[in-house]
Amino acid sequence: MKKNGLMGELVAEAFGTFILILLGDGVVANVGLAPRLAAPAYAWTTITFGWAFAVVVAVYVAGGVTGAHINPAVTLAGAVKRGFPWAKVIPYWIAQVVGAFLGAFGVFLCYRDGLVAAGMPNVWCTGPGSIFGQAFWGGTGGSAIGTYSLLTCFICEIFGTAMLIWGVYAVVDTKNVGPGVNLWPLLVGFVVLAVGLSLGGPSGYAINPARDFGPRLFGLLVGTAGLFTGLYWLVAPILGTLIGGVLGAFTYDWFITPYLPEK
After folding, report:
1. Mean per-residue pLDDT pooled into runs of 10, the chain (263 residues)
2. Which of 58, 79, 186, 240 gives 20 to 30 Å between its CA and that of 67?
3. Are 233 and 224 in contact (CB under 8 A)?
């Protein structure tokens, strides 16, 4: 039996999202600011694996209370297609953004010296500046932002978030080829890893409005430049992910659910 009702759920969502950002933005900061190996050892692969395991830990921690939405797109998809109460959607969103903001604060505390020395670069969110043009430990890198248009980033976030929902729904669907009850958070992390490796390049794969917006607000507070320049911050990581989440929920139920065996 759940205790403390909605308040307990909101605390779990905030705490789970805090963990997600502490580890997820933490790996971005680590790659750019505090490498322990030679420059070639740190690459996009490091970031994608870091984010994947951030999801695994966050879902294991909060999953027993709420199922660990830790993502407004997941919450919205649940309300649209899985009977999640609409009255809880906005409170969940607020808790997720608050948790993400606090997670970014935790990253700031851990990497403050390096961030200050580097001029407070964007380790917080996707979009312009989120991929270091030059690693601060001396190696060189490139940025996909500028190569890809806002429209392309928007489309990529739709596909990436839909893929997240497809993977999550398949993993937790008892009629499908699901894992044991204690393994599903690990497989959700693998879904996020797949999205990052295959679809993450153009936009940085927010696939989660809170993951992007909460840290973006924190970055603005501590002086990271350019985080709200133009409309990127709204179009790709917020509108794109919310649309992708709903699209993913509908299409899973169109193309998979009706054809699963009865159990």
Report:
1. 80 98 95 69 84 98 96 98 98 98 98 91 80 46 63 96 98 88 93 96 94 98 92 96 98 97 81
2. 240
3. no
Q: What angle (nearest 5°) sits at the alpha carbon of residue 183, between those of residues 28 and 175?
A: 120
| Cβ-contact 116, 110 below 8 angstroms | no
Cα 230 to Cα 70, 149, 236, distances in angstroms: 27, 13, 12
Contact 27, 46 (CB under 8 A): yes
Query: ∠72-251-145 over CA atoms, to 5°?
Result: 55
Which domains does the chain show, CATH number per domain? 5-259 (1.20.1080.10)
Q: How many residues does the chain have?
A: 263
Enumerate the H helices of the chain as residue ranges.
5-33, 44-66, 72-81, 89-117, 150-172, 184-199, 209-222, 232-234, 241-255
